[in-house]
Design goal:
11-stranded mixed sheet; 18% helix
Length: 186
C-alpha cells in the first residue's frame, strides 16, 4: 500500500505532524503529475462551502467544489472518469483523468450526461518545485501510497478520507484517526 517514491497517480497522505499547515493538515492529495521539474496534485478531502452553480450560473445542478490546494485558487480544475465524453483529457492513471475541454464539460453537466459521481471540481491545486516534494518526504511530511481505488478515487472525496487512511495504515496512525484536528482542543 505505501511506497517510497512518489509517482503520477499516487496518493500523498499528510503525516499527523502537519498540524499548523492550513492547506495540508489532514489532507489526502492525488498526484496528477510528477516529473523532475516538479509535481502537481489535488487535495481530495477538503470540500468548500459553495457549489459549481454558484460560480457558473448556467449550471443548475449543485456540484460540490473542493479546495485543490494553495496554488492558483482563482482557477477551476477538474478530475473525471469519462474521457470518452471530454476531449483533451490527460490520463493520470487507471481510468482517472485531469482536465479537458471545459465547454464540453459545461454542456455535459447542463444536459445531465455527466454526474457528480463522474467528475470533481477543485479551486486551486497543490504544486511542488523540482526537489520540494522530495524534501518534504525526507522531512516525513507525507506518506506515499498507491491509489488502490483507481478511477473510483473520485468517490473518495469526503472529509473523513484522511481518517480512513490513518486507520488503514494501522499502528500508531490509528490513534491519530480519532484525535481532534487541533490537539490543543483535547
Amino acid at each position: 500500500m505505501t511506497t517510497n517514491k512518489p509517482e503520477k497517480g499516487n496518493l500523498l497522505i499528510a503525516e499527523p505532524a502537519i498540524i499548523g499547515d492550513v492547506s495540508f493538515n489532514r489532507s489526502v492529495v492525488l498526484l496528477a503529475n510528477h516529473t523532475e521539474e516538479g509535481s502537481v496534485g489535488f487535495i481530495l478531502n477538503k470540500p468548500l462551502t459553495f457549489t459549481l452553480n454558484e460560480l457558473i450560473p448556467e449550471i443548475e445542478i449543485e456540484m460540490q467544489i473542493y479546495n485543490g490546494g494553495p496554488v492558483e485558487q482563482d482557477n477551476l480544475y477538474f478530475l473525471h472518469k469519462v474521457p470518452h465524453l471530454i476531449p483533451d483529457s490527460i490520463e493520470i492513471s487507471s481510468g482517472i483523468y485531469w482536465g479537458g475541454d471545459f465547454d464540453t464539460v459545461i454542456d455535459l453537466i447542463t444536459s445531465r450526461k455527466i454526474t457528480a459521481e463522474e467528475i470533481r471540481f477543485f479551486l486551486g491545486y497543490s504544486g511542488w518545485d523540482s526537489d520540494q516534494l522530495d524534501d518534504e518526504l525526507n522531512a516525513n511530511s507525507w506518506i506515499v501510497a498507491e491509489n488502490i481505488y483507481d478511477k473510483e478515487i473520485i468517490n473518495k472525496c469526503f472529509p473523513d478520507f484522511w481518517k480512513e487512511k490513518m486507520i488503514e495504515l494501522g499502528g500508531d496512525y490509528v490513534i491519530w484517526s480519532n484525535a481532534p484536528e487541533n490537539p490543543s482542543y483535547n
